[in-house]
Amino acid sequence: LAAAQAALPKLAVKPKYRVCFNQSEMDNPWRLAQTKSMQDEAKRLGWTLVFTNANGSAAKQAADVRSCIAQRVDAIFLTPREEKPLTPVVLEAKRAGIPLFVIDRKVDEAVAKPGRDFVAFIGSDFYDEGRRAAEWLVKQTGGKAKIIELKGSTGSSPAIDREKGFGDYIKKYPGIKIIASQTGNFTRDEGRKVMETLIQAHPEATAVYAHNDEMALGAITALETAGRKPGKDITIVSIDGQRSALDAIIAGKLGATVECNPRFGVKAFQTLKDYAAGKQIAGRLVNEDRFFDITNAKQNLASAF
Ligand code: GYE
């Protein structure tokens, strides 16, 4: 066993565990699917899942984790809303002797490292999701696009990495430019409102890159209200791969979506069991993500969340 892992809080082998799952918010289908996946697997295993919902507040989420530490649960699964505000509580769990798993979003790994300060990070490669969205858009537009970017929640790792992965990829294409970029906080309503304003200010836009499907769907509504024809005079790409986004692809409005798999339950709890059994755990367990466009949206509709 690597020395770093040996220095992490121990976990006894038990038939059943009492674990916390600290959710960041429950305001979009991705969050609902992730929560359901954790609850379903806890139920299947007969474990007790202490669930908290921070309602979009990083400060509340930090308090939620502290309350889990105080309750002396066996382990903590944290899906940190933002990187920096949730980093201290990760270190506090370690000091309190409670193994913690960061799932989905990252904390500040310059301060709290997987395999050293917490057991592991389990989640998607958000940088690569951004890169794949850019790759599709470049191909689809023949290397010419004026893009409006709708970013995720400020300070969250998917917003940071999806911006960077996309931005780095388009650097080598001089005909591809981001002409406006603003947060829509990962929600449909804010995506719509922000797009209403941005499309007035930038009528020359020919493409939209949304950091998640919900904002893309909100943007489609705003664009149609503004008299634009999504999928015809403006190309839209997003991330998540939820069912309603696949419907929008089939309807010809959304161009493509990179999947971000929200089903963590089985993998998260299996990793805990492996950890308790004394197995060496990789610090980073990366989820596989599919890609949906008009060529495969229909076939994958049933398996989307
Ligand atoms: O893309 C978005 C959700 O953290 C990867 O959070 C997740 C993101 C997901 O609110 O829809």
Automatic annotation (TrEMBL):
CDD domains: PBP1_galactofuranose_YtfQ-like (cd06309). GO terms for cellular component: cell envelope. It comes from the Bacteria. It is found in: Cell envelope. Belongs to the bacterial solute-binding protein 2 family. Residues 25-280 form the Periplasmic binding protein domain. This is Periplasmic binding protein/LacI transcriptional regulator. Keywords: Signal. One of its GO terms (molecular function) is carbohydrate binding.
